[in-house]
Specification:
Spore Coat Polysaccharide Biosynthesis Protein SpsA, Chain A; 9-stranded mixed beta sheet; two-stranded antiparallel ribbon; 13 strands; 35% helix; 29% strand; globular; GalU_uridylyltTrfase_bac/arc; Nucleotide-diphossugar_trans; NTP_transferase_dom; nucleotidyltransferase; EC 2.7.7.9
Amino acid sequence: MKLTKAVITAASPDHRSLPIQTLVDRDGVSRSVLEILLREIHSTGIEDVCLVIHPGDEAAFRRAIADTPVRLTFIAQEERLGYGHALSLAADFIKGEPFFHAVGDHLFISSDAKRSCAQQLIELATLEDCSMSAVQSTRETEIQHYGTIAGSLERSSSGEAIYAIKDVIEKPTPTEAEQKLIVPGLRAGRYLTYFGMHVLSPLVMEILKESVRDAASSGGKVQLSPVLAELARRERYTALKVQGSRQDLSQKYGLFHAQLALALVGSESTAVMQDILEIVARSRQ
């Protein structure tokens, strides 16, 4: 499996402004969220990226990523038919190849000093030659925000722990997760939820095409989690707990948490920590 293309979805009417917000990255440089993500993708060797956006947003996105090192293709999602539908619009861009996919309203903070989260995922997916999603252990009180997997623990050919995905449920309740999504090896009350980045085979686009056709006849929306559950039934599909954390910008204080996470792994982390302690101390006087 060789990856040369990536797709970022950023068309949600509720979250469309998040990718163009400005943060200070770990090098102390002010960049848009999207530019930070594009630089991470470029670090993997991928140079062609498709952005699926809300109609009319292209000019704002181009202004936010004026310093990007990748080649960009923009596609507007003219109809609000769901996340899966947005991803399906990139089928002609993908042209039957495996691809990397990330959501545009997340930032990914690696705890591996040498590799970004995207590099960790892509390197192992390439080695295993199969679709692979990044996942994170999540408390049951937070799983209602994410797609959550069921699977079994196994070892990759390089000896790393991965999970063979058996099922995926979008935003499950704790009761539903306890009944259907237990993963061996996790502490009680914790589940494996999607991290926001995936390496996907061309079969995903075929399943999406089927799902879009079905939704058109029923008037429903196309979500990605049911498509990935179907992928797991048709071919080998695995998950990797990457060394790092996702920062979901759409959550309350999401941008604040993302900026704090970047600052604490950045070149000025000591000064930032001192400032935080001073602010906390003053607030308690």
